[in-house]
Amino acid sequence: MIDRPRRGVLVASGMLFLAGPVLPLALGAVERLLGRGTGSHPAPDPLPEDPFVEVIIPAYLEQSTVGDTVERLTTDLEKSSVRHLVHVVASDEATAVAAAVAGKVTLTGRGGKPAAVNAAVEQSTADVVVLTDANCRIQPPDWPVRMLRELQETSLLSANKTENGSDDVLFWLLESWLKREASERGGTLAVVGEFLALRRRDYRAVPPATTSDDLWLAIDFDARGLRVSVSPAIVTCEDPVPRREQWERRVRIAYGQLSEALPRLPALSRTPAGRDYLAHKMYRLTVGAAAFWVGVGAVVSARPRVLGPLVGVPVAAAVAQYRGLLSVTTPLDPVAAVVALQAIPVAAASRILRRRLRRNQPTAVGWRKVPR
User: What region holds the Glycosyltransferase 2-like domain (predicted)?
Assistant: First the structure.
């Protein structure tokens, strides 16, 4: 039987962990009661009757994916009768060659995604700029029409993200629901870099060392009083990747979010969208994950000792499976993924600490990239 002190810790940590999915909704309800549930954003400037759209694809080591992506985007834009240019900013020669079907290809050195996007937007003459990745699909096919319609009401538009055959299905369902609720209330900063649409004149250059350029843009727009929204209809879809690559991607995203958001907590707390982001993303990456591991520790250290392996082994197996260290597939994989996702913030925080300790040492530009 778990003793009283550990039982209290377990109950408290369980409540804190389970509060994560509902906290943004509770915050929204409270703000509506206080009469500040929606952000006050000026109406965006109207778009021209026949806007010119430039799709910018920063790409590095994407030789096998970029050609199909360019063709798909071009087809969607042509069928939607939208004036357009598909521009690939390639950081390696093989990707540039594979992207030759694009309307414009710029070959650069390895300078990182922010530098590539900044240079492309600075050269652009488009009314609307769309930022996307070389390995994702934007759906539905008429997304250009939907995008232009939704940009009449917002300044920065993102999409919901999905992954084919992903074990994170419960995570993506929750994300979609929370983003939709926040967008309807007053905007959301929970954007994805796979799809960002904006008026070119609203763009401000992203600092080169930025670790999460999509979040930086969302925070910058919100700080200027410009509405940030996630489309209820547009989604991005990616093919599954090996588990180890998926783990690294998740840690990288969490690292970027923690690095960008934590130093800006006071500023984020002053806007409805910022407060929603803190309740939505930051809570789960900090308090929620910490509560989960405190609860696991309380059970593992309790008597009878049999509780240790009964809880510790499945948790360790879930994390090992998600990291690709354990090749096992079961019907409970979506549940195991929820458990494993709690280890992501720990890995990201550890990476932040290591980089802070090595701050005087030179670091590589960008992230370690798996060729595709």
Answer: 55-202
